[in-house]
Write a structure and sequence with these properties.
Distance between the termini: 134 Å
Largest sheet: 7 strands, antiparallel
Mean pLDDT: 89
Structural class: alpha+beta
Shape: globular
Length: 617
């Protein structure tokens, strides 16, 4: 046998002996198995305990962080409640977390319903909120149109919206703003109902404009949203918002990728890091008080949107706005031409959709300060010196707007849609028209609304214009005759600080005229001398709380001797545009007057408490 065979035999013999030994110790194998299992269990328990402690520690840290964040968020909420926002949202304070705008995949973005869009109260106005549809209108709107309503939609950007002064022009003009009563939509509604009533119907003009909107937004928002409300007429006022996207100097420019949220939405749908960051930022801003406190009411979409560079007119990596524009090259001219042609085609598509729906419409082109030849008001000189929006990239906005107007005019003639060009409308007035580079003052809004009303009456209502519809001199519509007038009679004030001169203010405020109680045999009236005879068609009265007479009248006179009734009203015809009870009147025909007399007819305590009295042409 070989050595290998001997070794194998030895091993087999040893195994046989071990087997005999095991058999000779009954239960030994079982005990070993039990010990082995117990060892495994012990090790598993140690591992489980270790994992449990780690998990508990992790959960503790997670809970601690959550409690800390909740505590910080609660602290931010308490801090915000000490700000004026507590008065803005007294019933639903959680609304402070909601941005003005929200992304919409179909048409870029829209206003959030219920958000406060006007905080400034210098004019004595209330806070303003978007309605249930996200429109700038205090009235809710239903998709089903009431049978007694003639529904008009004003669409467009910030000029139609009534933004006031934006950018550097804000502080330069004392943060001039437009309240609801001064918007084109509200004025247009009041003029039409006063001068061109529809039997059996009430004309309602809804301000559906959104700041920043261009024709691409108007087209898709109408298709996906506004048409559901079945408007009877659409008035579109825009033009300036087409300039910065059309100026983009890239070959692959896409009109429909421009906008406040389009850049963010593209990032999100790319599922990349920047998209996740944008989503988290917007989510935190709209769901936590802390982010609202950090952003201090700003809309974070403006800060995180990469497309904001387009609004500033900046080429990536270059600051073209700091350089002087040079004559465009052949390629640059071609790109600009293609961009403008794309804008015009979208406007034609908008016309086609409205025409297909059987909705009459007006496309109005807004005025621009740099394009206007009007004598500059001192405020406009100040605004123009800021040199905002004078050029985008290497293109002057004035030059580009001229070309756009020419192309849209030619398109309107070719396609047959109604175009109202207001680009040179204010060239013959020296009053304050522009609050910044493209937005308008309250007086300018009134004139725009009056002209639009005339167009609607003549073209769509088939009505002849009356003498009062005509505008002979624009300057006369900007004045406030009562503000420069004087009170020639009023009952004695109950306090020296509450004298009658307090009612001759531009807007209602903290001061008021409060008279003593007048005996029945004495005159209970206020007489105002405007200084000279004026043409008047509008009045605004604001009383103090709980001081509106059951009945009252405003009379007019050319000489302060012979009086004729002008307006009669009562305590059932009030509005809530101001913080105090107010009444607004638009006349069908203007009147001539130098003297005004306010007379409470039925007053419980025979006293007068008024905060402001204003009349306008």
């Amino acid at each position: 046998m070989s050595n290998d065979d001997h070794n194998s035999a030895a091993i087999v013999a040893e195994d046989f002996c071990d087997l005999n030994n095991q058999e000779s110790l009954p239960g030994e194998g079982h005990r070993r198995s039990v010990a082995f299992l117990l060892g495994i269990i012990k090790r598993v328990r140690r591992v489980a305990w270790y994992l449990f402690k780690k998990m508990a520690y992790f959960l503790f840290l997670l809970a601690a962080v959550a409690v800390l964040l909740i505590g910080v968020d609660k602290a931010a909420e308490l801090a915000l409640k000490r700000t004026p926002l507590a008065h803005v949202y007294p019933e639903n304070f959680a609304m402070v977390k909601t941005d003005f705008t929200r992304p919409v995949s179909h048409y870029d973005y829209d206003l959030n319903p219920g958000v406060c869009i006007l905080h400034n109260q210098i004019k004595g106005n209330r806070y303003e909120y978007t309605n249930n549809a996200g429109f700038r209108d205090p009235r809710p709107i239903s998709m089903k149109k009431p049978d007694d309503e003639f529904r008009i939609f004003l669409t467009g950007g910030s000029t139609a919206f009534g933004l006031g002064a934006a950018g550097k022009a804000g502080p330069a003009t004392g943060f001039y703003y437009i309240e609801h009563r001064e918007t084109i939509a509200h004025i247009l509604e009041r003029i039409l109902n006063a001068t061109a009533p529809i039997p059996g119907k009430t004309i309602r003009v809804y301000n559906t404009a959104v700041w920043g909107y261009a024709y691409q937004h108007l087209l898709f928002r109408y298709v996906t949203k506004l048409r559901q409300y079945k408007p009877d007429l659409v008035v579109s006022l825009d033009g300036a918002n087409e300039l910065h996207p059309a100026s983009v100097p890239t070959e692959d420019w896409d009109y429909f990728s421009e906008g406040q949220f389009n850049g963010i939405l593209r990032q999100m749908f790319s599922y990349n890091g920047p998209g996740l960051g944008s989503y988290l930022t917007l989510w935190l801003k709209n769901n936590t008080f802390l982010m609202t406190f950090v952003w201090k009411g700003m809309d974070p979409s403006i800060a995180i949107d990469e497309a904001v560079r387009m609004h500033r007119g900046l080429v990536p990596g270059k600051n073209a706005q700091d350089s002087k524009p040079s004559p465009p090259s052949e390629d640059r001219s071609r790109v600009l031409g293609e961009n403008l042609a794309a804008v015009v085609r979208v406007l034609e598509d908008y016309h086609g959709v409205l025409e297909n729906d059987g909705v009459p419409h007006i496309f109005a082109l807004q005025p621009l300060l740099s394009l206007s030849k009007k004598p500059r008001h001192e405020m406009e000189t100040k605004v123009e010196s800021l040199e905002e929006h004078k050029q985008y990239y290497d293109v002057l906005t004035e030059s580009l707007y001229k070309v756009l107007i020419e192309q849209i005019t030619e398109s309107a003639q070719r396609k047959g849609y109604f175009l109202a060009d207001f680009s040179e409308y204010f060239d013959d007035t020296s009053e304050w028209v522009f609050s910044d580079w493209c937005h308008l003052t309250a007086g300018a809004n009134y004139l725009m609304a009056k002209e639009l009303a005339n167009l609607i009456k003549g073209r769509f209502f088939q009505k002849q214009l009356a003498e009062g519809d005509k505008i002979d001199s624009k300057d006369g519509f900007f004045g406030k005759p009562a503000f420069t007038g004087s009170v020639v009679y009023a009952p004695p004030a109950d306090d020296p600080e509450n004298g009658p001169k307090n009612i001759l203010t531009r807007f209602p405020g903290r001061q008021l005229y409060s008279s003593e109680s007048v005996p029945p045999e004495e005159r209970l009236e206020v007489v105002v001398d405007l200084g000279r005879e004026f043409t008047l068609s509008r009045l605004r009265l604001v009383w103090d709380d709980d001081s509106v007479p059951e009945e009252w009248v405003v009379e007019i006179s050319p000489d302060g001797e012979k009086w004729n009734p002008w307006i009669k009203g009562g305590d059932k015809e009030l509005d809530n545009f101001s913080w105090w009870p107010g009444y607004e009147y638009y006349g069908a025909e203007p009147i001539q007057a130098r003297f005004l007399r306010y007379v409470p007819i039925k007053a419980e305590d025979r006293s007068i408490r008024i905060r402001s009295l204003n009349v306008y042409r």
